[in-house]
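[job 4471] stage=fold_predict status=RUNNING
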Amino acid sequence: MPIISPSDLLLPTEPGLRALARELYALAAQQPIISPHGHVDPGLLAEDQPFPDPARLLVVPDHYLTRMLLSQGVPPADLGVPSVDGSPVETDGRTIWRRFAAHWHLFRGTPSRLWLEQTFRDVFGVSTPLGPATADAVYDELATRLAEPEFRPRALFERFGIEVLATTESPLDDLGRHAKLAADGWGGPGGRVVTTFRPDDVVDMEFDNWSANVDRLAEVSGEDTGTYAGYLAALRARREAFAAAGATSSDHGHPTARTLDLGPAQAAALYDKGRRGLADAADAEAFRAHMLLEFARMSLDDGLVMQLHPGAVRNHNRWLHTRHGRDVGGDVPQATEYVHALAPLLDAHGNDPRLTVVLYTLDEDTFTRELAPLAGGYAALRLGAPWWFLDSPEVLRRFREAVTETAGFYNTAGFVDDTRAFCSIPVRHDVARRVDAGFLARLVAEHRLTGDEAAETIVDLAYRLPKQVFKFGGGPA
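[job 4471] inference complete, writing structure tokens
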């Protein structure tokens, strides 16, 4: 059997389809990267310091990797993941790398392996296969590259062809790193690195230290959060500051997609209950749901695109959360309902073209049954790409197959990498572009699209749509 060359990675294996897909992929590969949602530390680009050793760059912060090793009995502390309880963790980068390489076989068939191998090859020019016997050789090759000026963050940003990168910050962030980026000509409105407004820590009453966070919100906004009206004023003030720092969207990571319009009096009473420490889980869910309506109203005023990322049960692995904190691989997906959950928001604003709500899911079953019909029927809705547990070639293909017949291509929002791993950004976008090339090639072969239509569509999916939906300028022709 002939070996598929790296240039044909993920493209169809049937020769005729592969030839069509190659042509379409070549068009997509030329497009700049629009990265409208992610979690890269803006300080990385603001300071532009050399990356640390390969382990601290590629293993320690990547919960896709540390999570898999934990499932096989390797504790995160042995991989250098910082602890929050003061317990010791491994600090030697080479030791961490060797442990990781010794378990490389665990990642066979996973997107993590695909992304890492592309990163080694395409970003760092390292072609030595990783494994226990080659751990030191690969580590040394990577470390050599990281010491070179061409591998500093801003130089890589240029080489990756990133046009816009959106980071994600809390309203409590002073946005100082974004101010530095703006001063250097990299940030601010229309800049290359912009922020995103993520208010979960001051909205979710079940968030650690919620009430203290609301007190801090008063300090950074200059508004009195002692009342519900003052709380809303504080959120509006921070949204204004974020927009001044270049933000074009907000992001909401709620456990469910539920929305609710309580009315001012009932919302104020619930807010006061939470501030007194008397709110229960049902109260917290109701307040989160109501705040999505409030944020939709704010978006009508300030134009920020709303992103809704529901469906994650946070900190399900309680031992991991206690030992190492949030966002280290302890979350799991749950079934998520959208049709009834979103009805209050859609009744109020779903047909208003001034509002854009980008919906994501961790529940693949909802693609056909709920999300595509919703996006195909409301002017305000767009579908976000598969993310997190669904960010794989297989699900990206199934997404196109599931939603296109009802929502089309133009009710989707382009690809988002949703990553903390800066060096994986180009390879993740490349995977999405390859999958789309294969899907469109099949439509051409089936005489459902002309070649010209497919060529236009793949450029729209890769570049023009995310620019338009997330208000970075431009849009589909």
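[job 4471] summary: The chain is about 50% helix and 5% strand.
[job 4471] exit 0
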